[in-house]
Amino acid sequence: MASSAFNEFRYNVHDAKRLLQAHRVLSEATPGKKGLGHITRSGVVMLCAAWERYHEAIIVEGAAYLSREIRDPNNLPLSVRKHLSAIAKQSAHELKPMELAGEGWRALYVAQATDETGSLNTPKSNKLKVLYERLTGVPDVVTFWSIGAQPIDDFVTTRGDISHNGRRSPYIAAGTLNFYIETIEKAAAEHDNKYCDYLKAASGSVYQPWRKTA
């Protein structure tokens, strides 16, 4: 089966799909202008929440996999080693470096991934690239998405406009919401498969972290 994060994503994205369906039902009920923009705007917000939550969960899932499959922390991706070392050195707690000793690095690594992903609130490509590189060593996560970064970033920008401006934000047509749903679903599925390949290669394990999506 796919990653736990992707299964959660598919469950969460149903909210956006139900809102799209509700818009279609209401718009077909009676002729004339309906004023249903609040439904499609809500769909965008819920879809972006699902996208954001997916990355929060999948990064931690990836870190947990690497911590299990890699026996020696010196075999972690270089950017991950540098990041964990910097955290230990910069900590105000003088005993922080001791947490990396022995098997302690595993718990520290996963805890750090959990903590850093928890602060993600604008899942654009630039922020995701930083998190993936320093927490799991992915050089450029954008390469996982065949559509590229711009459509994803434009979608997240639209969500931000809705969040900050409410009804003053531009109207979202049902077709636009449907495009966003299809785009984000495709990107998440591609991401799950390519991240699976990356993690297996980075760990040197014979076991992949999860089965690829169809």
Can you walk through the features of this model?
The chain is mostly helical. It has helices at residues 4-12, 14-29, 37-69, 78-90, 104-117, 125-136, 150-165, 174-203. Helix 3 runs parallel beside helix 6 (125-136) and helix 4 (78-90) crosses helix 6 (125-136). The mean pLDDT is 91.
Give me the secondary-structure topology:
Layout: H1 4-12, H2 14-29, H3 37-69, H4 78-90, H5 104-117, H6 125-136, H7 150-165, H8 174-203
Helix pairs in contact: 1-3, 2-3, 2-8, 3-5, 3-6, 3-7, 3-8, 4-6
Task: Jot down its keywords.
214 residues; mainly alpha; 67% helix; elongated
Summarize the structure.
The chain is mainly α. It is built from eight helices and no strands.
SS content category: mainly alpha
Give helix % range: 55-70%
Low-confidence stretches: none
Number of helices: 8
Q: Classify the beta-strand content into a percent band.
A: under 5%
Overall form: elongated
Q: How many DSSP-defined strands? A: 0
Q: If you compute it from the alpha carbons, what radius of gyration comes out, rounded to the nearest whole angstrom?
A: 20 Å
Whole-number average pLDDT? 91
What is the quaternary state of this protein? single chain
Secondary-structure element order, N to C: HHHHHHHH
Q: Span between N and C termini?
A: 9 Å
**Biggest sheet descriptor:** none
